[in-house]
Specification:
globular
């Protein structure tokens, strides 16, 4: 199943366009994560609309018997918009660094069972065997392997037995893309003198092979679903 997943239909074209974009934005300095999204709150949902099909599919792969969800990097809740259409009674805890994003989420879903937490999810206590599902959409591709391993360990411990972790994220189409973006990421951090403990907004996606490898290291050895659409890859793993 995993071997047959096509991350990009035309890798050569994608890599050419990516390199052009990197050249055009070479002068742009990195922004801290929370600041980046706060400055873009007004056009965030319009920008993210490119993944409208993926949001719908993300909701479809969530089983109907799920009652409680932890959403990491929830933003304004575009994935939750679709999930609540399917099951309006699901209880959600949404964690995000950007308070303005969380405010918009609450405004949209004032009638839903949701707790919003403005916090760094690396520091937030997920609990132990607490959630039916942990989800995240387009958030984890900003982190390096050691950081992701910390997250996946926490997620694994926080899920009930049989619970699901559902990831929708930017996955590198090839090792060249993964390597190139990490090289530029480190160059930009060094040039700006940004400390290692500060999160910045820059895409450093893993290949699917490397992403699943880190998940397996955390204990996720049962992959139940993988598919990719419009540049977003959906991965479902069971505890």
């Amino acid at each position: 199943m995993v071997n047959n997943v096509v991350i990009r239909e035309n890798i050569e074209q994608h890599m050419s366009e990516l390199k052009d974009w990197l050249n055009e934005t070479a002068y742009v300095e990195l922004e801290e994560m929370g600041d980046f999204f706060t400055r873009r709150i007004n056009d965030y949902e319009e920008h993210m609309a490119i993944w409208s099909r993926a949001y719908q599919r993300f909701a479809q792969v969530l089983p109907s018997n799920v009652k409680s969800i932890l959403d990491l990097g929830c933003g304004t809740g575009l994935e939750l918009d679709e999930i609540w259409k399917k099951n309006p009674n699901i209880e959600v805890a949404g964690v995000d660094l950007c308070q303005s994003m969380l405010d918009k989420l609450r405004e949209k879903h004032i009638d839903k069972k949701i707790k919003v937490i403005c916090e760094d999810y690396f520091q937030y206590d997920f609990g132990t065997e607490k959630w039916d599902a942990v989800i995240s959409f387009e958030s984890f591709h900003h982190f390096l392997p050691k950081q992701k391993k910390v997250l996946y360990d926490k997620i694994y411990q926080s899920l009930k037995k049989g619970g699901l972790f559902i990831l929708g994220d930017y996955i590198a189409c090839c090792e060249e893309e993964e390597r190139l973006l990490q090289e530029i990421y480190f160059q930009k951090r060094k040039k700006s003198g940004i400390p290692e403990d500060r999160f910045v907004h820059f895409d450093i996606p893993f290949t699917l092979e490397h992403e699943l490898s880190v998940m397996r290291e955390a204990g996720f050895d049962k992959i139940t679903h993988v598919e990719s659409m419009d540049g977003a890859t959906i991965i479902v793993v069971e505890k």
